[in-house]
Amino acid sequence: MTTQITNSDKDNYWKLVENTYDHYPTIRHRKRFIINTLKKYIDKTRFSVFDYGIGNGTLLKDIKDMFNLSETDIGGCDISSIAIELSKKKLHSPFLFNEQYPKLNKQFDVIVCSEMIEHTTQYKQSLEWIYNYLETNGILILTTQSGKIHASDKYAGHTQHFKLSELNSLLIEIGFHINHLRFWGFPFFTLQKYLTNYKFSSIKEDFLEGEPHIKQRFIFSLAYIIYYIHDFINFGPQIYIVASK
Q1: What pLDDT, in 10s, does the model give residues 193-231?
Q2: Which of 51, 118, 223, 226: disulfide with 25, CB 3.0–4.6 Å?
């Protein structure tokens, strides 16, 4: 039985991982995918981006800086008040909301939804919200998970994972056109998920929480380099989708 993750659950999560989250190798690769997608699909020098499930705000801050966007060109939302507090330390956009379905007075050229829909049983409503607030011809960049829910996934608050075919059909039903979709993460991200099922409590304390340390940084940096091999293998637990309105 799936359980809807609460605001309190997400607040507790961000308190624990605030200082280590940006070092996770998979987080860095997702950011790379999102940045490369923006470079490929956006041909305007100025565009607007909304991060649906903004987390700590680092991704949106990096997008803002890389593409020289103004604070009024960006926005984001999250159900965690801690996440929004962290985001507001990095960003001063008037469009930062501690809500799942904020009411906006504008549409955005790009909406990023990275590792969010696996955290809510109301994922269809979230994708419909995104569609409604995308500009015509706007781009959705979606990342999520497939396959078995492992210990690390439960820790992060995943309520379900997805079959790519079913997610593809749902997006088309809502009205999206699919530009690109793929799997990513085999063999090493897959192996990581299975290995961390064992003694996960000690792994999360040593590597996922608290302050970064030399051993953690070394292992994460090495994994980041090794995980580049996944770019050449269309298989694994990670789902990447680019869709347009």
Answers
A1: 999 999 999 999 999 999 999 999 999 999 999 999 999
A2: 223
Contact 218, 224 (CB under 8 A): no
pTM of the predicted protein model: 0.95
Contacts of 88 (CB under 8 A, 6+ apart): 57, 96
Helix (H) or strand (E) segment spanning residue 219: helix 214-226
In angstroms, rounded to a whole number, what is the distance separating the alpha carbons of residues 20 and 100?
25
Residue 50: strand pairing partners: 75, 111
Q: Identify the burial level of 24 via C-beta atoms within 10 angstroms of its C-beta, where 0-12 means exposed, 13-18 middle and 19 or more buried.
A: middle
pLDDT tens per residue, range 134-191 = 999 999 999 999 999 999 999 999 999 999 999 999 999 999 999 999 999 999 999 9
Domain 7-244 has CATH 3.40.50.720: no
Q: Are 129 and 235 in contact (CB under 8 A)?
A: no
The token pair at 232 is: 């050449």
